[in-house]
Amino acid sequence: MRLENDVWQDYFETFQHSAFRLETHPVYAVPGEDSTFQRFLSGERPTGEHAKEWTDKVRRYLSTNRSISRVHVVTRPLSDYLRYEFSWWYRFNAEAGEDIRILDVTDRPDLDLPGYDFYLFDESRVVKMLYRSDGTQTGRELLEDADPTEYIRYRDTAVRESVPFAEYVADRP
Question: pTM of this prediction?
Answer without folding.
Answer: 0.95
